[in-house]
Design goal:
alpha+beta; six-stranded mixed sheet; OB fold (Dihydrolipoamide Acetyltransferase, E2P); about 20% helix; D-amino Acid Aminotransferase, Chain A, domain 1; about 650 residues; 13 helices; DNA primase, PRIM domain; globular; seven-stranded antiparallel sheet; 3 domains
Length: about 650
């Protein structure tokens, strides 16, 4: 069932208002264990959006549901570009927002009123963060639309309460109001300007009108080099000699903005690829002004792409125009995993059954924070912390009775973890001893560790793919009798030195007493090379701050000075990961920082279990680049004077 585009919002008590999700429309078919997730054009999404497919399998119901698959960005907003590029959980949080049910337990529900269908759907929704109920709001459509704009959403959908579900129909019982002008278009060619080094300069796009392919503009912005390279690969098998457009566009036509446009070569394409475009307005001759590329679409056929012109609202619905619930509850917030009452709970996570026990046990006595709250924290923090744990062997620092109780490190987990858990067999050249380390791979492994009392998460700096090549180099500023302001000064000096070397660096609180500075290596160098590079850096820092820093490994020889620790860059050495809780008073978190936050006044207690999730959502993952392109160590060392 499709919605009609209208030009403005309205108020009517006979209508419900929903968020317009910026994603891929998808229908979930579930019947006696047979599960399919399909696009509007009957394309399978089972593999592409495998977490949603798995969630539908685990739902265990017999129903056909309609909804939208979206990716939420760091601020909890739907991100169509991120959805288009989604390959795995590290690319963003994938959610299936379900808004309608068409069939249930052998009964066709399509003829029921919308409100009845939504009531049935809400009653059978699973307790699964990957599948969310898209609520219909009984409110002011005008105010709802304004709130949608403020939240950076694509727009809203209005649906008549009494409407049936008319599959395949573009109906006036569902209407959509967009916050910004967006249009689906089909790519019919691309240009390559004279003397350009880019793969292409602009896309030539159009839409279909009675089987005629009509040109509607040239898109020259919205893509980076990587996107262009990916598009070129898709273009090559579609190249044709003559344009498929009804009339060949004049690609070098002067305008008042570009009176002397550059000479350009043009490559024509079969009109098969669909993309989404944002633009400011449509000219009288049907050409978009200031179009910008938003991403490819795969959920419909090219021939279905027509020019969407907004009808006047009054012409579509009765103008009987007659406060807003919190829309933020609909986006960007994972449900907590564990309920607040039961001491023992069993949950299915990533298809594995986990038994959570002793949930009322107090882990932080002064703050009265329980094990349940700790596990719920890691559940909500999972999208942020997992990229720094995934495929890494873990040193398990266990506090089964909380921060005041007995604690111990467990590295060898041979025969002590569930069958589904991944382990890694490792031994060094110096020792014949073999150990099976637990490997973090998904939410299930993260929550398993939390359940056995791992308050903090301690991953290797390398993954099992390249175990002897760390992803990052660490400078650990470990104070003794120093003030935290001195730790901050040491961090600032470290950054100055690395800036002089043209080396990007990223700082986080340790969550205990110090600061950690990470340098991306991209697993290109050995632990020994990383350690020696760190030794050079800390030696330069010590030269500038000899009065209160030390390179002495032995505590007694430091004489109360701050230890500039470069030995964290040895194989199997671990420190608390970004976003990890620490077994310290206050339930502090090892929190990534903006460098401009690393200044006098910064305190460890600024980041705790109570506020860390909100900060992650507001600031995004500040450490993301640590997992990106690594430094050129040879070049850096060659330029050190």
């Amino acid at each position: 069932m499709l919605a009609t585009l209208v030009d403005k919002p309205f108020d009517d008590k006979e209508w419900l208002y929903e968020i317009k999700w910026d994603g891929y429309r998808a229908v979930g078919f579930m019947n006696v264990g047979d599960v399919q997730l399909k696009s509007r054009n009957d394309k399978s999404f089972n593999d592409k959006f495998y977490p949603i497919y798995t969630a539908l399998q685990e739902w265990g119901t017999n129903a056909v549901v309609d909804g939208e698959v979206v990716v939420l960005n760091e601020r909890g907003q739907p991100d169509f570009g991120a959805l288009q590029n989604w390959r795995s959980e590290t690319d963003g949080t994938l959610i299936y927002y379900v808004f309608d049910i068409i069939w249930f337990q052998g009964q066709d529900l399509s003829g029921l009123p919308l409100t009845e269908r939504k009531n049935i759907l809400e009653q059978i929704m699973p307790d699964d963060p990957r599948i969310e109920f898209s609520k219909g709001f009984e409110t002011s459509g005008v105010n709802f639309f304004e709130s949608a704009k403020k939240l950076g959403l694509e727009g809203i959908i209005a649906k008549k309460k009494s409407s049936s579900y008319d599959a395949g129909e573009r109906t006036k019982n569902w209407v959509k109001i967009k916050a910004n002008k967006r249009q689906e278009v089909v790519i019919g060619g691309y240009t390559i300007n004279e003397d350009t080094s880019k793969p292409f300069s602009a896309l030539l796009v159009g839409f279909f009108e009675e089987n005629k392919f009509i040109y509607t503009g040239k898109i020259g912005t919205g893509f980076n080099i990587k996107t262009q390279e990916e598009l070129i690969k898709k273009f090559k098998p579609l190249i044709i000699k003559k344009p498929a457009f009804e009339s060949e566009p004049d690609i070098e036509k002067p305008s008042r903005f570009r009176p002397n446009p550059p000479k350009a070569e043009v490559k024509w394409l079969k009109p098969k690829l669909i993309c989404e475009v944002s633009y400011t307005e449509m000219t009288k001759d049907g050409v978009m002004r200031h179009p910008s590329y938003e991403g490819l679409r795969e959920d419909k056929k090219a021939k279905e792409v027509i020019l969407e012109e907004a009808a006047h609202t009054n012409d579509v619905i009765a103008d009987d125009y007659k406060m807003l619930p919190d829309m933020k509850k609909q986006i960007g917030k994972r449900k907590t995993l564990l309920n607040p009452k039961d001491e023992t709970q069993v949950k299915k996570v990533n298809g594995n059954e986990l038994k959570f026990t002793n949930l009322d046990k107090i882990y932080w006595p002064a703050e009265k924070i329980t094990k349940r709250e700790m596990i719920n924290y890691y559940y909500e923090a999972a999208p942020f912390i997992l990229p720094y744990l995934k495929d890494r062997p873990m040193s398990l620092n266990r506090h089964p009775d909380g921060i005041k109780g007995f604690s111990f490190y467990q590295k060898d987990v041979t025969g002590k973890v569930p069958e589904w858990a991944e382990t890694y067999l490792y031994h060094t050249d110096e020792s014949d001893e073999e150990k099976h380390f637990l490997v973090a791979k998904d939410e299930a492994s993260l929550l398993y560790m939390a359940n056995i009392g791992c308050i903090e998460m301690n991953p290797w700096s390398s993954t099992i793919k390249k175990p002897d090549h760390p992803s990052w180099c660490i400078i650990d500023l470990d104070p003794d009798k120093n003030s935290f302001d001195q730790v901050i000064e040491a961090a600032q000096v470290t950054k100055e030195i690395l800036d002089d070397m043209k080396v990007d660096s990223y700082c986080k609180t340790s969550g205990s007493t110090g600061l950690h500075i990470y340098i991306p290596l991209e697993a290109k160098y050995t632990y020994e090379q990383s350690k020696e590079f760190a030794r050079i850096i800390v030696s330069l820092v010590h030269e500038r701050l000899p009065d209160y820093t030390s390179l002495e490994r032995t505590v007694a020889k430091r004489k109360g000075k701050m230890y500039l620790d470069f030995l964290q860059n040895r194989a199997q050495a671990t420190i608390a990961s970004p976003y990890s809780l620490r077994p310290k008073p206050g339930a502090t978190v090892s929190m990534p920082l903006h460098w401009n936050e690393v200044k006098k006044g910064l305190k460890m207690k600024d980041f705790t279990i109570k506020n860390a999730i909100e900060r992650m959502k507001s600031e995004g993952d500040l450490f993301k680049a640590v997992l990106g392109k690594g430094i050129n160590l040879k070049k850096v060392l060659s330029e050190i004077k």
